[in-house]
Structure of CoA ester lyase:
Amino acid sequence: MSPPSELVSKEPRPSHLCRSWLFVEGANQDALSTAPGSGADVLIQELEDFTPPSERPKARALAVETYAAWRAAGAVVAVRVNPLSRDGMDDLAAVMKGAPDIVALPKVHGHQYVMELDEAVTRFEREYGLPEGSTRLLPNVESAKGLMTLPAIAGASPRVVGCLIASEDLAADLGAERGMDGAELDYARARFLVECRAAEVVAVDCPFTFRDDDGAAAETLWARRRGYTAKSAVHHAHARIINDILTPSDEAVAQARIVKERFEEARARGEARVEVDGALVELPNYLNACRLITRHRDLTSVT
């Protein structure tokens, strides 16, 4: 069976340029149809926590049409299926007909979960005539065990482009007291970023699960300060907040260009470093400035 050409013809936004990853109720037709208006880079049809078991057949039936609409709107199309030991295989059998760009898997506690998903996705790609290897994977880390085995999880399949850290499930697994400031997850989120960076996959920060817009902005700023370039969301309004904060501002780009220019001039004079606005700029600062300029250029080219 060959999929319609429009399902696979358009090259999706590269994963490293995806800032906002929005979970959408899988069986809520209104939410699915309005999701592109959120401005999220990645739209995720959520078939697990946001879709009761009784509603999953309806959600699966909506997948192909929904993905076509999302793709036409310019979003990266993703789906979070259920654990494969539960409803996940039924989910995949339906949603793979729509050629999702990314399949996310919840409650990944070890590399074997990813290997099993890879095998299943490969089987459905062959069955539905999709290019083999075209579907990327996003394991969701939602437990202490998952966090501690993240290097193996990230390296379990070449399809893995990133990992996502949960908030509510992880807090529950840790026995942590959940708060709007998210302080109880500070260590886990910081470690998760380091592990993902070492594994060379995208680190998608946990969703801010409160409706407060200021709180979402504060949590995204916390993530950016530590090096995150991607964050998930569960409220439509938070996608644009995330995009705005995780996109280098004009002021930041202008400052980075000054740093780059002054450092290159200093090096041309044979100097190892240069002072810019009272700060000593050395090679790591210069490289960070170059990365920020490049990221701004790349984001601008796909927006």
